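Q: Could you write out the predicted structure for this multi-component system? I'm mainly interested in how the pieces pack against one another.
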Amino acid sequence: MRYRCLVLSLCLLAAPLSALAQAGRVQLPPDLDRLAKRAIDSVVVSLDGNMLRMGKQFMQSDGDAQASAVAEGLQGVYVRSFKFAHDHEYSASDVSLIVQQLSGAGWVPMISVHKTSTDENVEICVHRDNHRVQGMVIFVAKPRELTLVNLVGNIDLTKLGELRGQFGVPSVPDLPLGGSAPAPAAH
Amino acid sequence: MNERDTSELETRLRQALRPVEPPPGLESRVAAAIARAGGTAGPAAQMRARWPVTGLAASVAAGMVVAGGLAWSVHRADVDRAQRAGEQIRTALSLASAQLTSALALASSLSASDADGDLSTKTDSGGSRADRRPQFDSHD
């Protein structure tokens, strides 16, 4: 009886701890990866723990200071990006779990764009804890593209913004990216 | 020296040089005496005596070579994995940066095209939870 109480107490303690450890991480739908079979171009990245540490060490040794500075606080990197040959190769149900999570507590939308003419939806949300960014999600849904980038950990948005123009990404000047995460939205 | 002396000398030499069979057990007694005295054995015997040491040394050397090879291959695999992980981080950051740039460009164009009612953009300026809830059209 005493043993059961101990196990139950440990489970009750472990639940919020595990939730805390996963703060900023979006649970991916289990069948999301099957979209890769239909996609003409796909990027699937799942990095955490040891692999992420190894990757960061490699970037540092490779002299990529700017990118490794952004990656420094990362605890997890999860990317699913699919480009399709035809429109609507994915359904709303494929992304409903993601949308639900981004609507949940802790997530604050930074940019939310819905363009009806091109059926383009862009959500950039951050997960904050004590005004520190603990996670970030970039979710792009277009008729022929579905992209989810989930960066877990302490992310310096300024440094991420400074990567514009890096890796062949065109720089768009005069954008109000700013140096810090925006203030929490009023509820 | 006359002929008689020569013949006698020959006889004595033949007598001295005649083949003599060793007495029985002489070979084993000599070997035992050599072993007791720590005398030197022949090359074949030396080889037989040293083979455990030589074999052990060869095994250790071979083990070191194999261990070194394994360690190198493990290190190589780690380096390859780290390189792949680094490339994946770069890919993710590249994608994030590109999408962030694209979204910001789209948002910044709001002021120009919002009047058309084509674009609805919400930045983090407030609003109710319902307003902030992402909404996506069904693509079914």
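A: Regarding packing and overall arrangement: Chain A touches chain B through 77 residues (CB under 8 Å).
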